[in-house]
Amino acid sequence: MNAMVQTHVCTGILVKPGLVVAPASCVTKGIKDQEKFPLVRLGSYDLNTHDGPEEPEVLKTCQRIVHHKFTGKPEEGNDIALLVLNGTKWQHAPIEGMLPVDHCVPNKTMSSLGWFATSRHGSPSYNLVAIPKLKHVEKGECVKALKDKGVPNGTVCAVPEFRAVAEWDLGSPLLCQDEHLIGLVSYAQPQPNVHVPYVYTHVSEYENWINTLGKDASTVRDNPDSEYCRKDPEVPTAGDSATTREEL
């Protein structure tokens, strides 16, 4: 959630206690300092419920870790970031694990969950929505379908079996058997009346980067709000091994 107005901006996935993976294109686009450290709402199914900063399921971002090769343009790849959260009580288990797309298709089912909007600039759905069947799109076919946008390394393409009424949510996960994380929606190039695929950051290709908190390959920014952060010794943070450390 945007920390200033507390509205949904994108979706992320809890991969470890206190650690969320999300698109870098989402968490770096804020102008004000408060927007650079989003609130993370865990386990919610309804955006109409009042989950303010005082609620136990709404946690502040203590540290933002962005892949050092992310240029600000998701179509150039490396659209991945980590959010280190505050809090000591974890009522929600992390996702089962990460899986390469070729370990899921063609024998297993891919699906997605999200707060889908009717367009990239539309309002998110009030309720969490599932898209039950997605098809893997080979890279050559995906490049042809997206035309002006490239398909960089570290990504996979997929498209819903049936075009949904509402289907855009930056960061919505591509799942295998509803359990394992394959990717996070990074971008698309919607075309009128054309069934085009979405490009997902292929998270298994970044698994080592995630597990090492971006060691030697990230830009790190710490939340200056020390009153809420660094209270949980079990939640790791990136140390001095980052490529760049940003200061406020």
TrEMBL record:
GO terms for molecular function: serine-type endopeptidase activity. Residues 221-248 are annotated as: Disordered. Residues 221-234 have a biased composition (Basic and acidic residues). Keywords: Disulfide bond. InterPro entries: Peptidase_S1 (IPR050430), Peptidase_S1_PA (IPR009003), Peptidase_S1_PA_chymotrypsin (IPR043504), Trypsin_dom (IPR001254). PROSITE patterns: TRYPSIN_DOM. Residues 1-215 form the Peptidase S1 domain. One of its GO terms (biological process) is proteolysis. It holds the Pfam family Trypsin. PANTHER family: FI18310P1-RELATED, POLYSERASE-RELATED. This is Peptidase S1 domain-containing protein. It comes from Ostreobium quekettii.
